[in-house]
Request: fold
Amino acid sequence: MKNISFKNYLLFPRYIKCEKINWLHFFKIFIVSSVVTMILSSIAYFLKDQLHIEHNVPKHNLMLVLHAVVWAPIMEEIWFRLLLRPTNRNLRFFIGLSILGSVYVFFKAAFITGTIVIIAGTLAGFILKEKKSSRVKLLRKYFKFYPVIYYFIVLLFGLVHLMNFNYGDLELWMYMMLPILIFPQLYAGIVLGYIRMRYGILYSILYHTLNNLIPLIPFILSAIK
Reply:
């Protein structure tokens, strides 16, 4: 199905055929989504300040920039969205990157993310070992439950970003407010999934890079001076 709008995909995610990139459409979504992200981020930061929650992301430096615009877009798109098209090639590539990536995230003490990556890589390995007939059956189930899988991945992508904060001592009602902190990431996960399925993984990586780059532009400009 071609030319499916983002609005329609948001209401009902489906497995669609990859199209040739439409740059006008790509940047239109990026501009509109950037405005939405700014609004959601403002709400999230207001809550963060009210609950005295601190970001555990280090202050702006060159390594943070490289992580945000190179490492994170590539690895997060591969980990969370490559297998939205579960071809044999993508499964093999995912397994290889999962092994390398899990070593890095464990080294960085991101144990939850590392565990998720290892579990996902192991499942991908089991799928590859299945007979062709069994894989066909799995694919049929995958297509049937694709909307559920899509939004589960969006949710997982958002939850992982909860580890970007130090919470201190919070009361129970405060913990119930924490999902608001990841509204920007949840929305980004929806948009990135759409870009990945409509135009391909390379374009979702590009979108992810641009999305992470925008907040860092003031720091980059100040560093150049």
